[in-house]
From TrEMBL:
<keyword id="KW-0687">Ribonucleoprotein</keyword>
<dbReference type="Pfam" id="PF01165">
    <property type="entry name" value="Ribosomal_S21"/>
</dbReference>
<dbReference type="InterPro" id="IPR038380">
    <property type="entry name" value="Ribosomal_bS21_sf"/>
</dbReference>
<dbReference type="GO" id="GO:1990904">
    <property type="term" value="C:ribonucleoprotein complex"/>
</dbReference>
<comment type="similarity">
    <text>Belongs to the bacterial ribosomal protein bS21 family.</text>
</comment>
<protein>
    <recommendedName>
        <fullName>Small ribosomal subunit protein bS21</fullName>
    </recommendedName>
</protein>
<feature type="compositionally biased region" description="Basic and acidic residues">
    <location>
        <begin position="31"/>
        <end position="52"/>
    </location>
</feature>
<dbReference type="GO" id="GO:0003735">
    <property type="term" value="F:structural constituent of ribosome"/>
</dbReference>
<dbReference type="GO" id="GO:0005840">
    <property type="term" value="C:ribosome"/>
</dbReference>
<dbReference type="GO" id="GO:0006412">
    <property type="term" value="P:translation"/>
</dbReference>
<feature type="region of interest" description="Disordered">
    <location>
        <begin position="31"/>
        <end position="76"/>
    </location>
</feature>
<keyword id="KW-0689">Ribosomal protein</keyword>
<dbReference type="InterPro" id="IPR001911">
    <property type="entry name" value="Ribosomal_bS21"/>
</dbReference>
Amino acid sequence: MQVLVRDNNVDQALRVLKKKMQREGLFREMKARRAYEKPSEKRAREKGEAVRRSRKQARKLAQREGLIGRKRGGRG
């Protein structure tokens, strides 16, 4: 991973680096590796993640087909 420092602006480069690391999931992985995870806990976590992914995918498909309305609001 590479970040360019422009005009000796290290603070901006750090912000960009943190954002890139966040997007890549590095912070989540570091937190997960901090302590040992039992195999049963790992299976339960992965199953929960799979359920969330499938629900998200089904929700997106339903929105595309017009079965449910899109969420209004957001940032800004």
